[in-house]
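Model the whole thing, not chain by chain.
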Amino acid sequence: MDKVAFQNTIQARRARQRRRQLLVSLAAFLILVAAWLIGYLGQSGELELDAYLEDVLPQAERIEAGSGGLFTGFAATSDGSFVVVGYAMVGIASGYGGPVALLVGTDPAGNILAVSVVQNAETPNFFRQLERSDYYSQFVGAPYDAALTLGDDLNGVSGATLSAEAVAQSIRQAVRGIASSAIAGAVIPPDNRPVNFGVPEVALIALFVVSFFLHRLRTRSPLKRYGRWAVMATGVIVLGFVLNKPLTLANVISLLAGYIPDWHNNLYWFILLGGIVVVTSIQGKNPYCSWFCPFGATQEFLGSLTGAKAYQPRQIYSKLQWLQRGLSFTAIVLGLALRQPGAASYEPFGTLFNFEGSWPQWVLLILVLFGSLVIYRPFCNYLCPLDPVVDYVGEVRRWVKDTWQKKNAAAQPTSDSLS
Amino acid sequence: MAKEERSGTADKRQSILIGYVAICVVLIFMTLVLALTPEDPATAQQVTQRATSTRNPIILTAQADYATVAPEHRDEHGNLLPTPTRGGS
């Protein structure tokens, strides 16, 4: 009798837990939808261009909006008539955190007079690098038929490649648009966008493949142990310090917001996100976080110097995990509602690998690095916003697998039914 | 006694961990506030002066070299001629 009562209590407790989880999941989903709608509605208005037009067409005394987004600037002559002194148009491309819009002003022959950033959702510290490295000045004076391509007639900006590419693409789009709309007889070069497949993409695929096969080895296998250290070192050096392209929350928020980057220039991100989802779904183990995440590996290297051990006290670990999920969720909601994926990505990855960050990020980085000497991967275990996101992929996998197994078990004839 | 000591040490370690995580969380919120605040005060002043709320101060201009625009070319296509603004006679 006692045993039955105990089982009933357990079942009732599980049912309560399931109901609570369902309510929390539903509430979280509704909040995400609300944040998405707030961001969408807040952004759907037209760009405010008046002040920018004066900046990119400084000689114009009168600016008229024409069809196809073309603005024409006029100046008065001595006899009182007006002549065309330039054109302007907006170009938009997908950057690291979302759309990057630039207004471009040209002279009547299509030579660029000025460029102005009208809108961006990039990580502020990285986007400012373009200004600091004098990136924009490369465009001024360029004719409409110039290549305006990174590595061709433009120098990129280390650590802000995606933003630099988005700016170049926006300006190309705008200046070619001006030429086709306003310049008679303009010969517009085709917009050749070669697929960007190089060392970063090859390195990333190699890391996924190697870690996938090493995962399959026995835990105590020396090959697995040394292989893991080699993969982690490659992650820190290549994905961290050389490329500065770790996975960040900005990538996740961008996808949720519907900002799908141009795959020609961003194949790396598709491989990274797709690789994590595919390998986690197949293998049930996330190869990125525990193996070649450069920030995680850095913490583990530091911990190995002092023999730092994982510290997850039973009494508070569950609460701290919920805190981590809450942080991640808050950042995602803010990023979606404000349509600022780059700004909502609070990880100090760029601070370590590119020496860029706000002062709280610097302090956080120092705390994490010192903490790594004492606790095994403190940022991964308690603070990383990506951990709950990747866990979610694992949960979906488990749910699909369980449902599949239950369905199969129900479909299989039992021995009773056969007899 | 030894058990109490161990328990005390465990409590202390937990308190340190909670304190450590709490400081990190505060720093994370400060990071978010700084990053999501539209502009710093200096730029905000510029924003107000230029009457737009999402203004980015990046602006680079070059003087137009209207000499590169051939008047004959514009005439042939029936477009208006630009007025030379500098270096003209």
